[in-house]
Each structure stands twice: as C-alpha cells, then as structure tokens.
Amino acid sequence: MSWKKARRDSKVGKEEKKLGINATACSELVFTDCAVPIANRIGNEGEGYKVALSTLDGGRVGIAAQATGIAQGAFEAALKYSQERMAFGHPIFAIPSHPVHAGRHVHGN
Known about the structure:
It is a single chain. By secondary structure, this protein is α+β, with helices and mostly antiparallel strands. The chain has a domain at about 5-75. Helices cover about 45% and strands about 15% of the residues. It has helices spanning about 5, 50-85, 100-105; strands spanning about 10-15, 25-30, 85, 90. The chain has a two-stranded antiparallel ribbon. A hairpin with a 2-residue loop joins strand 3 (about 85) and strand 4 (about 90). The termini are far apart.
C-alpha cells in the first residue's frame, strides 16, 4: 500500500536532490491536521525536537561508515588507474610528482 493511499491527512512532498547515495529516495512528508493518539507518541509532548536529534545521532554512524567505504573505493580506483595510465613511457604512479611520491619526500620514507 502506498503512503498516499494509507493516510488522507498527509502527502509525500518533493523528492530531494542528493549528491550521493541515490539508491533510496528522500522526500518530505507533509501532515495536515494529523492527530496522533497519545499511545502512538514517541517521547513526551514538547520533546519532538530532542527525539528527532537523537534519531539523527544513530544515523550519523551509518552515514560515516558509508562515506568511509566510498572514500576507500575512490582511492583504490584512483590508485589502480594511476598504475595503469602511461605517460612519458611510465605509469603515472611512478612519476616523482605523483602525490604518493610527494608525500614520501615530505615524510622521509
């Protein structure tokens, strides 16, 4: 059952444009004259903002893990490309101005 059919006092708003992680939609939910029974409340009256922020805290860990995985994948893809891409008869990875080599000069490795 879709959200639109399930409730008459709410609607799905515009879908947000995101920079990444596009496999899931992110849309606003609009509630008009929506009554929530006391038994269905999460937290006490007036504490909605606090409950929302605590929910976001848990999500941030997952988002950080996703971002770390994306960064690792990007690094590995760039490293592989730099080892395959040839310039001046050598892989660009082997050129001394490559960032990996530049870091070795700074750190003395």
